[in-house]
Each structure stands twice: as structure tokens, then as C-alpha cells.
């Protein structure tokens, strides 16, 4: 290991200054690993709250699924760090192959899980109890399962490609991890992620309309199906609208806003990944890795904070300083189960 680090250090010293700053080395590996570990710890506490807290009368399965995937997502990129091979240009093939397969598959799954959350919220707030012959519960579980179906599909494709092209399973020295360097596959996965992100943003646009949010803040009615698609161009207006609504907005409204916000966060990650395919520089390769390590922490900050105060720890679990956004909310027209209503609407 010492020889490997010495060789890597020599290569760094001989490189241009700008390249040396961003060259993968132990300091950058330690940084990304530490940031991801902090985010994973917070996500684990948030998951424990959602699953175990008695104060939550209903859970959102798609949100829990997204948090689980976000918790697992930093593990594959860190496999070489765990094994002490991050600076080795030729790590063991089995380790390198495993990392490449899991890494590419999980990234697309992460993006799909975000879309599934917004789809589930759309179906729950915009359609009746039965849609295309399936109940709301069945649609919810379909939304939960689809990302995992995509994951196993990509794993199988990656395994087949890696088995056929051993020489394409490489560990470039300007990245922290291994990859299956088959351009057609990498481009296809990136295009898939871009399409999914575009669908999620379009869905977010239809789910949010400032005029509707103000008009229906105290009614709990189903979102208007004829809302205008202007949200992405009026982020400031939406923020001011939510401040006016205050605690009168339904939990679904705030969950939709959080889902849309995280979708925008993922959009920048997809753009950075696209940059790595067109720009062969150290910065273009390292910045997406650092950005990815921030994702668990970003997810916690977006979904784990209330509108005013952060969730505070009490007896080892989280208690929300405001009514939690995690309860499933069914307008009266969709469900007769009053137990799923917010506390200030219960009778």
C-alpha cells in the first residue's frame, strides 16, 4: 500500500498544478468518505424515526424507499477505499468489477426512486381511489418496486458487459472508482437518467401552482388538474406562497416541494456526469464524485428538516418541531379514514 501511495504521489508531483489540486489521492478520498458517512448516519436516524416513531400515524413508502437507496448509494463508490486500493491503478478484478456494476446501477436507481416519489404523490392527490383499474395502494407499491426492477435490470446488463469485455473494466487514475468503459452503455444510462429527471421536473411543475396552493391551503381538496406549468420559472413565488400558507398547507404540499427540490439537486449531478463524458480533465472527473458524496446529507437536509426548525433529538429519536410532513394525507374525496388526516383537522 505504501508503494502504491508513493507511486501515486510521484505522478501527482509531475502533473500541472491545476491537475495536482484535483488529482484523486488519499485526502480527497478521506473527504468524500467522511461527508458521505455523516450523511448516511443522519439518514439512518431519519429512517429510524419514520419507521419506529409512534407520532407518525402513516408512512410514505416511496419516501422510505428513496431514503434507503440514498443510504446505500455511497457504499459502492467507497469499495476501493474500504479495501485500500483507491490509488492502485490495477485493483483486483473481482473488486473492481463489483464496484463498477453496483455503482452504475445504483445511480440510475436513485434517480428513478425520486421520480417514483413524485408519481406516487401525483396519483394520490390528482386521481380517484381507482386509476386504470388499480387501487391507490397497488399504485403505491408499484412506485416502490419500479426502481428496484430497474436496478436489477442494469446489474444484469453490467454483469454481461463486464464478463464479455474484461479489458473494459478499468480504474482510471483520475477517478476514485472502477467503471465498465463501454461508451454505448454509459451513454444509454446517462440518457435514461436525463429522461427520468426531465419527467420528474415536468411532474413537479404540474403538482405545484402558487394560485392553487393559496386557494386550497385550508380545504384539503384534491389538486386542480388544470394548473399552469410555470413552477420551474417561479421558484421565488412558490417560496413566498408557502410562507403565506404557513401550517395550513397539507403535508403532501410540503413533501411535493421537497421532492422537486431534490430533483433539481439531482439534475445538477446528471449535468456534471454528462460533462465527464465530453471533457477529459481532472476537475470534470472529481467534482461529480464530491457532489455525489454530498447527496445523503442533502437528502436529509431537504426531507429531514421542518419548515422552520430542524428536527430535534429526544430520547434517541427525532421529534418534529412542526407537524411532520411525512404523514400520508388523503383528501376527504379520496379516503374516509380520518386517522390519516393531520392532527389539526381530526375530529
From TrEMBL:
Transmembrane residue ranges: 31-52, 64-83, 139-163, 184-207, 213-235, 255-277, 289-308
Species whose genome carries this gene: Dentipellis fragilis
Protein name per its UniProtKB record: G-protein coupled receptors family 1 profile domain-containing protein
The protein's UniProt keywords, in alphabetical order, are:
Membrane, Transmembrane, Transmembrane helix
Amino acid at each position: 500500500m505504501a508503494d502504491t501511495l508513493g507511486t501515486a504521489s510521484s505522478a501527482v508531483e509531475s502533473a500541472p498544478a491545476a491537475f495536482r489540486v484535483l488529482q484523486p489521492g488519499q485526502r480527497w478520498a478521506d473527504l468524500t468518505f467522511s461527508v458521505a458517512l455523516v450523511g448516511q448516519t443522519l439518514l439512518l436516524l431519519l429512517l429510524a424515526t419514520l419507521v419506529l416513531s409512534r407520532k407518525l400515524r402513516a408512512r410514505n413508502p416511496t419516501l422510505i424507499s428513496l431514503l434507503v437507496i440514498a443510504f446505500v448509494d455511497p457504499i459502492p463508490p467507497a469499495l476501493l477505499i474500504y479495501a485500500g486500493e483507491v490509488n492502485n491503478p490495477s485493483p483486483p478484478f473481482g473488486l473492481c468489477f463489483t464496484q463498477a456494476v453496483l455503482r452504475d446501477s445504483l445511480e440510475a436507481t436513485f434517480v428513478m426512486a425520486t421520480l417514483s416519489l413524485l408519481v406516487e404523490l401525483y396519483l394520490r392527490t390528482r386521481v380517484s381511489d381507482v386509476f386504470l383499474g388499480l387501487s391507490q395502494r397497488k399504485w403505491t407499491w408499484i412506485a416502490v418496486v419500479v426502481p428496484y426492477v430497474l436496478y436489477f435490470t442494469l446489474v444484469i446488463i453490467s454483469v454481461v458487459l463486464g464478463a464479455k469485455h474484461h479489458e473494459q473494466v478499468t480504474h482510471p487514475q483520475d477517478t476514485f472508482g472502477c467503471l465498465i468503459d463501454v461508451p454505448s452503455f454509459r451513454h444509454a444510462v446517462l440518457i435514461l437518467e436525463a429522461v427520468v429527471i426531465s419527467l420528474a421536473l415536468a411532474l413537479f411543475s404540474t403538482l405545484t401552482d402558487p394560485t392553487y396552493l393559496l386557494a386550497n391551503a385550508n380545504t384539503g381538496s384534491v389538486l386542480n388538474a388544470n394548473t399552469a406549468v410555470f413552477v420551474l420559472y417561479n421558484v421565488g413565488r412558490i417560496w413566498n406562497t408557502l410562507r403565506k400558507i404557513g401550517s395550513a398547507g397539507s403535508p403532501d404540499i410540503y413533501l411535493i416541494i421537497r421532492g422537486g427540490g431534490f430533483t433539481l439537486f439531482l439534475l445538477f449531478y446528471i449535468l456534471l456526469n454528462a460533462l465527464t463524458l465530453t471533457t477529459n480533465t481532472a476537475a470534470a472527473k472529481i467534482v461529480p464524485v464530491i457532489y455525489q458524496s454530498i447527496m445523503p446529507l442533502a437528502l436529509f437536509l431537504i426531507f429531514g428538516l421542518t419548515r422552520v426548525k430542524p428536527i430535534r433529538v429526544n430520547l434517541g429519536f427525532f421529534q418534529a418541531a412542526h407537524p411532520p410532513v411525512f404523514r400520508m394525507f388523503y383528501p376527504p374525496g379520496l379516503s374516509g379514514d380520518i386517522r390519516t388526516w393531520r392532527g389539526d383537522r381530526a375530529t
